[in-house]
Amino acid sequence: MYGYRKEHIVCILGYIALFASLIANSYLIPDATFMIGICLLPFIMYALPRHEKSMRFLPIVLVFFAGSFYVREVSFRYLTLLFATLFAMESLSGKVSPLVFWLLLIISPLFKYLSEIFTFPIRLQLSKWAGLLLQTAHFPATVTGNIIQVNGSDFSVDPACMGLQMTGFSLLAGIFLLVHFQKSTGKELPWYLSTLVIAILFGFNIVSNLLRIVVLVVFSIGPENILHDVVGILCLVLYVWLPASFFVKYFFRFFAQPVMEQIFVKQPGKPTTLAFNFIILAGCCFVIFQNKKINIGETKINAFGHSEKYDSSQLSNGASRFKSEKSLVYLKPIPAFYSTDHSPYTCWKGSGYEFANIREENFAGRRIYFGTLKKGNDVLHTAWWFSNNNHITISQIDWRWKVIRGEPGFQLVNVTAGDQKDLKQAISEWMPRI
After folding, report:
1. Is residue 294 part of a domain?
2. Which residues are registered as beta bridge partners of 359?
């Protein structure tokens, strides 16, 4: 089995059991992207040539083990397990392709989270770009937030319309193409060019979704229509997979280098290497099964103009809730620059609400997000931003970079009301006067 002995297989089975525990705990979601990735993993492992054994991942594993005592995020535990698994593979059998790392990352919730959070501004821009294309083609299109109006009909572009599932499919297809051309040509790309290919595919996916939105608007195809999914698949094939096959072939033609498969001599593993692997496996068991501790930051209540008309309560996740007759406010401290931010888009959707008309607007000279929440006949208006009492921002990169540089921690401020007048009044009360 790919150069593994019995004791090696026992170690690998231990890691498989730990990944299975993450599925049982609902961290790893066995959706279509995950299942395709798992099916692709043996193809990568057996299709690519084997190299000498390596301990190169050991320092990374040790750093993540040390960090796991301070960082209690589940995604950090997953990365620890991921690097430990790569260390086991390479130290027991031989170096693996960097594509294995990319595959295990793409099928994880960490990738979905990073895609959803850091591409949120891009996804909001998709409706503006789609409206511009329609206007260029002489369609009477107007854009308000994420709503495109054509001939009196409104088309709401879901902020998730970038298609995170399609993004995963695109990148997995890129990995498949890289492995296929490496196997058929006997050459391989340097790791940085393989990474560039994946980044280009990510860009192609944005273009594909932009054109998909234009087609859906032009032909008035709603999400309940089966053609909605058909158009998505066609755009994925025409604007992602087809061009990807050409430029990956081009990369291999001009930049790939011949790779020689080494003769693999079956030898018993060194006792020290086996000992390292089983110690690391035991450490992974401790990391994965340790109780998750919620790191609750400090809520800067007074600085945000808290008044007696709000009833306050502390939630189990560390957030503070303030409720008055006309508005509802959540203050959600963010423990560290690497932490999740309790996105209102995710939290409100979890309560059964659908977002509409999401947009950036100026309020008192500052850019903040506005949106409308709908649940049956219930309609609410909401706004949110990040603040540390010195700065207000809506940029994920901006607030995380400020925290890295040593500035005070940020918190998410989410204000909701029944109408626009009450919303603006509440924002005025809770936005610090910097």
Report:
1. no
2. 370
Taking the model in full, what pTM does it have?
0.76
Residues 187-234: tens digit of each pLDDT: 888 889 999 999 999 899 889 988 988 998 888 887 778 888 888 889
The answer to whether residue 317 scores a pLDDT higher than 80 is no
Dihedral (C-alpha) 193, 196, 201, 204: value to the nearest 10 degrees?
-130
Number of domains comprising the chain: 3
Strand partners, 392: 387
Task: Check: CB of residue 18 under 8 Å from CB of residue 81.
Answer: yes
Domain encompassing residue 423: 302-430
Q: Are residues 53 and 192 in the same domain?
A: yes
What is the C-alpha separation between 379 and 372, in angstroms, rounded?
7
Q: Do 310 and 362 belong to one domain? A: yes
Among the candidates 130, 156, 182, a domain finishes at 156
**What are 110's two structure tokens?**
């960490």
Among 289, 323, 348, the domain-final residue is 289
Measured from the Cβ of residue 433, the count of other Cβ atoms closer than 10 Å reads 7
Q: Which of 249, 340, 235 is nearest to 294 (CA)?
A: 340
- Mean pLDDT of the region 334-343: 76
Lookup: tokens for 335: 């423990």
**How do residues 97-121 score in pLDDT, each as one tens digit?**
888 889 988 988 888 777 777 777 7
**What is the CATH classification number for the domain harbouring 408?**
3.40.1000
